[in-house]
Amino acid sequence: MAEITCGNRMTREINAEIRRAIAAGEREIVVNDPGARHNLGVAVLEPVRIRFAGSVGYYCAGLIDGPRIEIDESAGWGLAESMMSGEVVVHGSAGNGAAAAMRGGTVVIHGDAAARLGVSMKGGTVLVAGNCGYMAGFMGQKGRLVVCGDAGDAFADSLYETMCFVGGGIQGLGTDAVVEEPSQEDTAWLDATLAEYLPGTAQRGRDFKKVVAGRKLWNFDKREWKVWQEAL
To answer: How confident is the model at residue 205 (pLDDT cuts 50, 70, 90)?
Structure first.
């Protein structure tokens, strides 16, 4: 296992050392004293394990493809943005735009997530043990978003095929978002996924509300402009 101490070093130096350790064959790396620096652990394309022993700033673990990245405390804006595959686990809370535009993999937040969680996500799974802010799931195209606590306003606004699940209350649904009963398959998936990633949560799949697209906005026909007008 390799250990990297940030000290007074710049983010570029720290990321370069992470890459050198990977190139040397290290598969487990601990980064000490991250000091909430921005852009740590970006564009890691190897199946390695990286642990940040503290809090990280904006855009940690962005553009990754394959690693497991663990953050002992909290993360700033843009966590795991555009990730392709792998796992990102935050033991604290995450700022705005966590998991934005992700294409695959799993993001787990043990605390709360701020606004715009999972916006424009194109695949993968997002799990939040606590609450999330407004506009979570906005324009989600594929994948699954699970919030064990409460969801903020405009939840799942302008959704496509992302499936959203909420264990608590929803302050307000977004445009064209509707609630439906989870299927047996949904419940089984939720039970298995929560047991794997968030075993400390009390919810079971049957306790969740499922939010999907009402599909009124999926296709625009100028002859039906009143439908869009009413939906918007």
So the answer is: low
